[in-house]
Each structure stands twice: as structure tokens, then as C-alpha cells.
Amino acid sequence: MTDLPVTVDDILRVRPLVERFASVTPVVRAGELAVAGRGAVLLKLDSLQPTGSFKLRGAAARIGSIDDRHLRRGVITASTGNHGRAVAYVARELGIPATVCLSENVPPGKVAALERLDCTVDIAGPSQDAASERAAKVAKAAGGPTFVSIFDVDVIAGHGTCGLEIVEQVPEVATVVVPVSAGGLISGIAVAIKAHRPDVRVIGVSMDRGAAMHASVHAGHPVQLDEVETLADSLQGGIGRHNDTSFPIVRALVDDLLLVTEDEIARAMYSALADHRLVLEGAGAVGIAAVASGKVTPTSDGPTVVVCSGANAELTRVAAIASRRAM
Ligand SMILES: *Cc1c(COP(=O)(O)O)cnc(C)c1O
Prior knowledge:
By secondary structure, the chain is an alpha/beta fold. 44% of the residues lie in helices and 14% in strands.
């Protein structure tokens, strides 16, 4: 495990940077997902972070690691929304400028949320990859801002603090279920957890429409897929053409990658509202969807912890989900 690009020492190093901005989020019991005779099912509520998603962890770790001279020039990033929001939030707290490059597919509520954080929003093309290319280009100019990439090792180490919290809060954990897009969250969590407990199963979940990491792991190399509209819009986007961070970590440490349908995601969002009075966006609910659909079965050797990664659903969508008849 020492030859992987992120180690548990990296996670421990950035932890104080993360804790300046991010919360230690609660773990709650999900009785409705329990299976008789099996370990408990628990929800790790990273949807309760100040920016509504776990992305604050990685942004705080990365920006906190920039030296003062570069920090003053500000930061730039590309994002489906939640990473940009986290970067903008940390930048505003530190009093430095931030620019966020977005694809046209990002929902208007997420754009408005970014604008409320005083950052510059740059709609940079039809896809997530186009937005990333724009951000990387601006950052390369002399005196330019620092590019905060979702694939950066400090970002992944920051996400790993979620994994440290899980082993501290649920020491007997047997299985962790994590939403997957570019794989930064699950990489950080897997490094943190497997360093202490290599026997814990780490399972990734994506939507069955355009799941780039799932396709890439099966192909053995990064694969580009078309972006398709999904309730889990925060899981859209590729894993990059030359991914040498999250991709090797996922291949080495993740035990299984599963896919869930749009209907399963909608039911999971509804169940979070109905059973926990908890707002989750589609991406944040895919772990619940995987357990509720039986694609992940809780084992009897310990609890299953389901990471709920984000809350930033459009309110009109939340209202539509809530007003469905009980499913
Ligand atoms: C970004 C995001 C994910 C996926 O994280 P990756 O590190 O890209 O795999 C999951 N859920 C939410 C809410 C997100 O914003």
C-alpha cells in the first residue's frame, strides 16, 4: 500500500487543515435498512458539511497546503458544483480570489450558490472535461492562480479524513459503501480505513448512466463516457485521461463497484426524507440505494457504514421526490 500516491500519513498531515473548515459529521443508525441477524446499517452524514458536501474536506486540505506567495494569486478549479462550492467557500474564508469553471450541465441552483460565495463563475463548455481543461490552462499562465484539481493528492488525502472518522466512530465497521464519480472520495476513505483495518470491505456505488470509474476499472484503463442526465448529477464527469491518483488507488483497494438505477436513487432520496427527515441529493443517496435494493447486503461480522456524500439537490427536485406517494 506504500507505493500508492496517497498514504495514511498524508491524511494525518492534512487533518488539522481540514478541521479548520469542515465538521466531524455524525453517524446515525438506519433501522429501515437493517436486515435481521446482520450487522447494523449506519449513515455517515457528510451531507451536513457547511457547503452541503464532503468536498469541503479536499478543498480545505489542498488550499491549506499552498504557500503564502501562491495563495495570494488565488485559486481556480473546475467542478460539477460541489467541489467548486467548497473551493469558493475556503477561498472566501481565507480572503483570496476564486474562479470556478463549469460545464453547461450544472443545475442553476448550484451556479447561484457559487455566485453567493463571491467567486467568478466561468461556463466553459459542454462537459466536465472541457471545464477542467479551461481551468488547467488559466492556471498555467505566468502569475496565475493555483489549480485545485479533484485528482490532486492533497484533495484525496483531505477526503481521507472521512475514513479516519468512520474507523474512530464505528471501530467494529465491516463494510463501507461510498458514492463514486472521479473516485477521490472512495480513494481517500479506502486508504484511511485499510491502513487500520485491511479486512473492511470498501464498496463503491455509481449511477448506471455514464459511470466512468466503473467502465475504466473494467477496461483496465481510463475510459471516456458521454454524460447522460441523471438524478445523481454530482457523479457525472470523467476520471481524466491520465489519472495516476484515484484510478490506481481504486484498482488496488476498492473491493467492488456497483451501479444503481434512477428509480433506486429516487427511492433512496425519498427514504432519506421520510425515515430521517434528511435531504440528500441523488449522488448522496446512491449508497442507500445500493443497500435498499439488496445490491449490498449487510454482513453479520459488523456494521455497514453508508457514506451520504451531499445534500445539494435543487429544492424543486426535493419537493417532487417528497410529494411522490410512499414508495
Ligand atoms: C463529488 C461528489 C461525489 C463523488 O466523489 P468523487 O470523489 O468524484 O468520486 C459524490 N457525491 C457528491 C455529493 C459529490 O459532490
